[in-house]
Amino acid sequence: MAKKPAAHSAASKTSTPVAAAKPPPAARTASGSISTPSVTPSKPLTATSLSPRSSPQEIIVHVWNRYLQDTPSRTMLLDTFMVWLVVVGGIQFVYCVLAGNYPFNAFLSGFCAAVGQFVLTASLRMQTSERPPAGASTTAKKTTSKTVDAVSGELVEDGKVSTERAFADFVFGSLILHGFCVNFIN
Q1: pLDDT lower than 70: segments of the chain
Q2: Domain span at 121
Q3: Cβ contacts of 72 within 8 Å, gap of 6 or more
Q4: CA angle 172, 175, 179 (to 5 degrees)
Q5: Tens of pLDDT along 92-129?
Q6: Residue 28 falls inside a structural domain
Q7: What is the CB-side half-sphere exposure of residue 111 using CA atoms within 13 A?
Q8: The model's pTM
Q9: Is residue 43 part of a domain?
Q10: Structural domain tally of the chain?
């Protein structure tokens, strides 16, 4: 059996990122000068901190940009649903004030359904949040202990339930809430 050359085997073991190492190719313009394409960042660059004298508009824009950068899409979807529930509850309340509340049970049922669903969605958002609370230390996050729940048999990290179980609880609570609301209309 013939041995492979050492240079060939060493070169095959090392991997170099080809696309990251090469600069973008230069292009020639019509006048003959060489121009390189400008590289634009994929996300807009924002200031990392605000000054104490920032205007309210700058603060709002900064908070909105941080929200868009740091928030996962699942959490944004839950936030959008919560905004929709606030709009629905507000419309029901304004209608009740302007047009009257003759079927008062129907108003109470619809408004309580919107408020109750908002509370359940907020609970789901808190349980499925991927970011640790603001007061939590980073060392505590690394030393989490895992236990097995005696009733369900699922793996639990320091009292935190899995996202699947949180969603199942959300669906179960929503069914109970809307069952009571439909029953209360009559």
Answers
A1: 1-48, 131-159
A2: 56-129+162-185
A3: 130
A4: 145
A5: 999 999 998 888 888 999 999 999 999 999 999 999 98
A6: no
A7: 15
A8: 0.60
A9: no
A10: 1
